[in-house]
Write the structure tokens for this entry.
Amino acid sequence: MNLTYSQTGISDNLTNSLVAFIQDETIFIKGLKEGETLNIYNNTGVKLYEGTSMNTETEIYLPGVNGIFIVQFGNRVVKLIKK
């Protein structure tokens, strides 16, 4: 197995990670790739949002929705919980 490292010593694969968090009724997502599909599902698998990223960051407003969210972007997945 060959690993390549950046000048920071962190693998390039790790620096392309998806970061997502919830603040109030908005999901903030960073680390996206332009032109790829972004999906958000609830804990029962119902798709709440589908869109295409226009840049590396986005905000998605989901008013009045609580629970567990699955954010999928390409082959990356992040789980979020909103109480």
About this structure: Residues 33 and 51 are 12 Å apart (CA to CA).
